[in-house]
Amino acid sequence: MTAYTLEELGWRPAFLQSLDLDREPVDDIARISAVHRDTYEALSPQGELRLRPMPADTPVEDRPTVGDWVLVDTALERPARVLERQTLFARKAAGSGQDVQLIAANVDTAIIVSSCNDDFNLPRLERYLSLVREAGALPVIVLTKADLTDNPDDYAARARRIASDCAVETLNALDTDELAKLTEWVGKNRTLAFLGSSGVGKTTLLNALTGKDEAVSGIREGDGKGRHTTRGRSMHRMINGGWAIDLPGMRELALTGTPSGIESTFDDMLALAGQCRFSDCRHEQEPGCAVQAAIANGELDGDRLVRYRKLEKEVEHHDASLAQRHSRAKALGKHYRSVKQDRKSRR
Fold this sequence. Notes:
It is built from seven helices and 13 strands. It is α/β, with parallel strands linked by helices.
């Protein structure tokens, strides 16, 4: 049974700040390495652990996700609580509700993987960039399958136009020499995560960096879209001593609570907005609109403004709906307490 020191698992002194060392011994700390429907896998100095889920009434944001540090309740063999996170990736859960799904935590670098084929999609890249920047991790865009196109530099140039100061790399994931481009972001005891759609090469990159041989699927004929490979969220030891989190492909990524991430991703357009004549400019037909002027002279892609508005409305709608739901729950709780108190006074 493999055991790692906390330092080998990526532990940092900052995590001590969320511990009450008089009651919460460091010896009971573990890191979540995989999340399943009814159990967690964790790594610790005591070896590999299999933990039961937390109580069903535990709020979603207080439940562990892959990459989390947890204090283990050794008697109940389950996480007692999640330690304060350095970074957290989350998205709106599938469906019409407003629930949040936790994706990964305590990630230092996020490798946003796309490919030089029909999967390349600027709106999706902007969503991933917003997610990563809101989480506080370092984003890096990697465009795979560069060997299957005559113009990989064109794909890279299009990505750089929306990536601001984010690094963009093109590579052939099957070429060992080209994988050296990633070594700058995969340091010892550091954690990275692979984000992207199915079939873009995430598992191939994981195999190369970890020395494993996970299953790899090809791409479908006709649309160039990948077949699903990764089915769970899991953390793997890399050859250089770092950690890689493999995540299922996410073609649909509904954002939630990411206003600062969106602002960072669209900082070029927002800088122009600050030059408009009117502070409340809607960037439509107002005189002195710097955004529309930039679109007219080709400095800014008009579709980028459309995509920004869509993301902004999406997040505002989710946050408003969530606030309304919390308000209703609070009012209902107050009503129940009032009724209960009234019944007691009648006895």
